[in-house]
Structures are given as C-alpha cells and as structure tokens.
Amino acid sequence: MQKGIFITFEGPEGAGKTTVIQMVENMLKEKGIDVVLTREPGGISIAEQIREVILSPKNKEMDGRTEALLYAAARRQHLVEKVIPMLEQGKVVICDRFIDSSLAYQGYARGLGIEEVLGINQFAIDHLMPDLTFYLDIRPEIGLQRIEKGRSHEINRLDLEKIDFHYKVREGYKLLLNQFPNRIKEVNAEQSVDDVYNDICDVLRGFL
Ligand SMILES: Nc1ncnc2c1ncn2[C@@H]1O[C@H](COP(=O)(O)OP(=O)(O)OP(=O)(O)O)[C@@H](O)[C@H]1O
Ligand SMILES: Cc1cn([C@H]2C[C@H](O)[C@@H](COP(=O)(O)O)O2)c(=O)[nH]c1=O
Fold first, then answer.
1. Which atom of ligand 1 is least distant from the CA of 9?
2. Count of domains observed in the chain
3. Of 10, 13, 19, 98, best ligand 1 pocket probe by most atoms within 8 Å of the beta carbon
4. pTM for this structure?
C-alpha cells in the first residue's frame, strides 16, 4: 500500500525541470523529508537502456506506436523496480516526466490520440497516478534556445523534431491541464529560476 507522495514535473523541452527539481530536493532534505529523485524514461538500468533506443538520433525510422509502447514499457519497469518500493517506504518520490509526457508528446503531438495512449499506459501504471504534477509552461523556441546554450545537455531525437511538433506538445499539455485540473498545477517557466522555484514552493506548502 502506498504511504509516500508521488510528485511529477512536466513541460516542453528546456522548461527547467531538472534545475528546479534539484532545488526542491534540497529544500525538502533540509526539512528532514525523505526524498528520492528519478526520471523518465530511465531511473533504473532497464529503463535507461530503453531510453537509449528511444532517444538515439540514429533511430529516425521509429514508428509512433513503437515509440509510445517503449515509453510505456520503460515506465512499467521503473514503477515496479523503483517508484512503488520507495512510496511503500513512505518517501516523497519526485519524477522528471511521467504519463503526461506520453499523453502530450505521443498522444497529442504525434497524433496517436490522448485516449489511446492513456489506454496503453493504464496497462503499464495499473492506476498509479501522481498525487501532484507541476507543468512548467514555456514557449518552445525559448526552451529549445536554453537547451542549445546549455553545454552539457544531450540533444535527443525528440529535441530534433520541427518547431510545430513542440508547439503541439505545449497544446497537448494545455488540454491535460483542463482534463486534470486538481492534479496538474501550471507554473510560468519563462520567469527567473528563483521565481519558478518560489511558485512551486507556494503550491508545495499547501500540499505537504
Ligand atoms: N528559469 C530559467 N531561466 C533561464 N534559464 C534556465 C531556467 N531554468 C533552467 N534554465 C537553463 O535552461 C537549460 C535547460 O534547463 P533544464 O535542463 O533544467 O531543463 P529541462 O526541463 O530539464 O530540460 P529537458 O527538456 O531536457 O527535460 C539549462 O542550461 C538551465 O540552466
Ligand atoms: C517520459 C516521456 C518522455 N518523452 C520525451 C520528452 C523528451 O523529449 C525526452 C526525454 O528527455 P529529457 O531530456 O529527459 O526530458 O522524451 C516522451 O515523448 N514521452 C514520454 O512518455
């Protein structure tokens, strides 16, 4: 039975999720809260191997449904091997991306259908939805510029999609905000890092 809290961060490329998640982790640790950071696709060995296959710029011929199924497979393994055990130990689990990425990227932007992609993901997650999700909103061209500037950031197969695809990803997330208004909280990610962090802390204070 789940005793911990499952929090996810979402957004278009370069929204600043990794940056702000680290700040939230430090803040929670200072308060003595047991917190685990993880990411999708990845977080454990099998899912990191699937990540390599999905995101390698060499795999240009990958079919959209194959892509959606691989994300769901990586998600399943990550959940059973890491997320669920950590929640059972009562930890706060913070995950960089989760099911909403599949709904926005594969369901909406790739055109596979949000409901269809939700369907294959229900099989993978078996009803384990996040308790709280932050959606970091940013215009795609600003996010992509940030990634290009950041020297250490890998440029993956999805980053290389045309700008229209990234606009559709953002539109997809906006639809999800309407679909799950209680779970997903929108934050303006075009602000300074400190302002983004403070907005997130305001929500967390009310939640934790
Ligand atoms: N609010 C901000 N203002 C300006 N630059 C930022 C801001 N937040 C993050 N950055 C910078 O933008 C780049 C991307 O940030 P980060 O890696 O945190 O984004 P991300 O959302 O995790 O990216 P991805 O799409 O790969 O998941 C980094 O170089 C980071 O320092
Ligand atoms: C979980 C998930 C991710 N994606 C995409 C989003 C990004 O382009 C990459 C992950 O790279 P990041 O630098 O770690 O953000 O994968 C997706 O399309 N569908 C998903 O379910």
1. 21
2. 1
3. 19
4. 0.97
